[in-house]
Amino acid sequence: RAKNEGRNRACIYDNAMDADLSKRKLLEGDLREAIKHGQLRLLYQPIVDKSGDVMLGVEALCRWTHPTRGEISPAEFIPLAENSGLIVELGAWVLRKAMLDGLAWPSLTVAVNVSPLQFRRADFADLVERTLAETGFDPARLELEITESVLIGNFDTAETSMLRLKALGVRLALDDFGTGYSSLLYLRRFPFDKLKIDRSFVLSIEKAADAAAIVHAVVSLGRGLGMKVTAEGVETADQHLFLRAAGVHSMQGYRFGRAMAPDKIAARLEAPEAFKVSGDQPTSLAG
Ligand code: C2E
Ligand code: MG
Ligand code: MG
Ligand code: MG
Question: Where in the sequence is the signal peptide annotated (predicted)?
Answer without folding.
Answer: none
